[in-house]
Specification:
Blueprint: E1 5-10, H1 20-31, E2 37-43, H2 45-56, E3 64-68, E4 79-86, H3 87-97, H4 101-116, H5 124-139
Parallel strand pairs: 1-2, 2-4
Antiparallel strand pairs: 3-4
Helix pairs in contact: 1-4, 3-4, 4-5
Length: 150
């Protein structure tokens, strides 16, 4: 496998979402040299809410959820996990934060993939490491720091 494999599934038509080629490009950039399989599922608010409630105990739709496939054996081509991104939440957040849709979508894809790779933001140190990596990846596409102004 010469490149990471990224599948894009659309389960909703509500809310704007980039094309599969752009989503794949952003996911591959976040994966770096890892040649793994990732699935990006674009979901509606109902599915996002259900998943967020089931897996995180939170009863509302959220922007991105990551589901790693289990212990990471590091094997090239092995599945890494799934990402569920709620299109309507991403659109709403982009508008509220004054970001372009493409920039916010790219951030959600990168954020989700980094979670699959084991990055987290549970502590200040973990958040700093994850946010630094997000900034590096997003800058490659000309996107501004997603945390600027927070």
């Amino acid at each position: 496998m010469s490149e990471a494999s990224v599948a894009v599934l659309r389960a909703t038509k509500v809310g704007w979402a980039p094309g599969g080629a752009r989503l794949t490009e952003w996911a591959r950039a976040a994966l770096g040299k890892e040649r793994r399989e990732v699935c990006i599922r674009i979901v509606g608010a109902r599915e996002s809410r259900r998943l967020n409630h089931l897996f995180r105990g939170k009863d509302y739709p959220t922007n991105v959820l990551s589901f790693p496939y289990g212990p990471d054996d590091g094997q090239a081509g092995a599945p890494l996990g799934d990402i569920a991104i709620c299109a309507s939440v991403v659109v709403r957040e982009a508008r509220a934060q004054g970001k372009t849709l493409a920039a916010h979508w790219a951030h959600m894809v990168v954020h989700g993939v980094l979670h699959l790779q084991g990055y987290d933001h549970g502590t200040d140190a973990e958040a700093a490491l994850m946010e630094r990596r997000e900034r590096q990846v997003l800058a490659r596409f000309g996107f501004a720091d997603p945390y600027d102004g927070e």
